[in-house]
């Protein structure tokens, strides 16, 4: 098909910005990962695969950060997907009260992660914190915890906050998916005497496969990006118990002044995300067919 | 029969209980924070949950007087508005070109931007930082805007191309053969009919850019260039546990999005969802 040359001009400004500030740095990161550049001086050496070897075999914190990241991902994906699906089912009909609840549940999505972090840092605070106070008032002092200060607990507290912030957003995707299921399908199975559970298993579940794929994929990527939340709530501590890959990369570069090594970690990070995303698509595709 | 009705009733009660419980889980922390922002430190320690002893605006006043929150607010507004305008302009031009090209050129262009959505910004924060400092643009809002445009553009290209695919190709081609050049076709036909997806993109982008912490954190270090999320992060270091002060900042920083959400609720939900449905 014929088109005028003007169209090439249309592409130019956006493509130029994107190539300069996104594509080029992404490729440059690969180059940096083979150097020992510390971030400021113009002097650096090629170090071959040293950074990668160190990352894979010689860096306990990288292993910890990766494990934390996977733990965090698993908890967030499981809880966020199931909670948002349950609320989508409960709030499916467009009644006045349901529309109100959906709007309220969606609300945390629009607040910045840093604000969400401060809200919950206050609730979890061991001294003035509201959560321990309320537990005390309910006679449950035994359950009071140092929610963000206990290395065993901190990552789960943050996972809870992550779900709090985004479950409403995922619910909206499920509601859209559920509302597109034709009423007749339900009428048919109920006529055959199906129970609610059978209707869910045979109609709802297969029909929301596309929505579920989106929710799971999006939640996974989001959980890997939990940088803001962790940075503001714990900074990766206590003793690296909430350090995830993105915060560790930041610390390596800007506190450790090891830009070359941080670039290698970024490449590792990208490969891990790519593997997980591909694995998920395979799994979910298998389910929907 | 009686048994069945009882079961249904328990179901309804259980459902209401779950819904109200989760509603409180959102409302309680948020209202505690709103109330705390009107309290003094001592009041907060004595009484973290309840109504303030006396409503005091001093935290808010100090935020603006001593902490130049007004400046950060302006910086955030400037960064968010210019990023959105540039992205909408660039990505609508791009999406229209992709729509018209067809064939391998369209596939490559679209693929290049779609691939960008798969790469989390944390992956290339290091090389982006070094590029921006090579260009001498660290610590400038221009540098921050340029990076924000490039980071968030893929989502807009995705939303807009998705919409433009549904435009009647014959109509657009007829218009451009009729002597109208590409530019006027774009301005007079394509832009007006793309309005719904342009505004969905704008809403999604406003939430993303207004709330972004990572790139301001990387690229800005002088106090007069800070955006709101970065300023909030640094208040935390400065005030340690002066929660009322920090919360006054949180509320000012969240106000524009909250007001916009209440006013444009349905569009917000659609916009933010359109941006997240990106695989």
Number of strands of chain A: 0
For the report, how would you describe the main beta sheet of chain A? none
Q: Report the CATH superfamily of chain A.
A: MetI-like
Report the structural category of chain A.
Answer: mainly alpha
Q: What's the SSE pattern of chain B? A: HHHHHHHHHHHHHH
Q: State the end-to-end distance of chain B.
A: 47 Å
CATH class of chain A: Mainly Alpha
Shape type of chain A: globular
Pick out its properties.
heterodimer, A: 289 residues, MetI-like fold, 13 helices, B: 279 residues, mainly alpha, 0% strand
Verbal overview:
Chain A is mainly alpha-helical and 289 residues long. Chain A is 72% helix and 0% strand. Chain A contains 13 helices and no strands. In chain A, helix 3 (60-90) packs antiparallel against helix 10, helix 8 packs antiparallel against helix 9 and helix 12 (245-254) runs antiparallel to helix 13 (259-288). Chain B is mainly alpha-helical and 279 residues long. Chain B folds into 2 domains: 2-60; 67-276, MetI-like fold (Orthogonal Bundle), CATH 1.10.3720.10. Chain B is built from 14 helices and no strands. The radius of gyration of chain B is 24 Å and the shape is globular. The mean pLDDT of chain B is 87. Chains A and B meet through helix 1, helix 3, helix 4, helix 5 and helix 6 of A and helix 1, helix 4, helix 5, helix 6 and helix 7 of B.
Give a brief outline of the structure.
By secondary structure, chain A is mainly α. Helix content of chain A is 72%, strand content 0%.
Question: Helices and strands in order, then pairings?
Answer:
The complex is a heterodimer of chains A (289) and B (279).
Chain A: H1 6-32, H2 50-57, H3 60-90, H4 96-106, H5 113-124, H6 130-137, H7 154-179, H8 183-191, H9 196-207, H10 209-224, H11 227-233, H12 245-254, H13 259-288
Chain B: H1 2-36, H2 41-46, H3 58-65, H4 69-101, H5 104-118, H6 125-134, H7 141-164, H8 169-177, H9 182-193, H10 195-211, H11 214-219, H12 228-239, H13 243-263, H14 265-276
Helix pairs in contact in B: 3-13, 4-5, 4-7, 4-10, 5-7, 7-10, 10-14, 12-13, 13-14
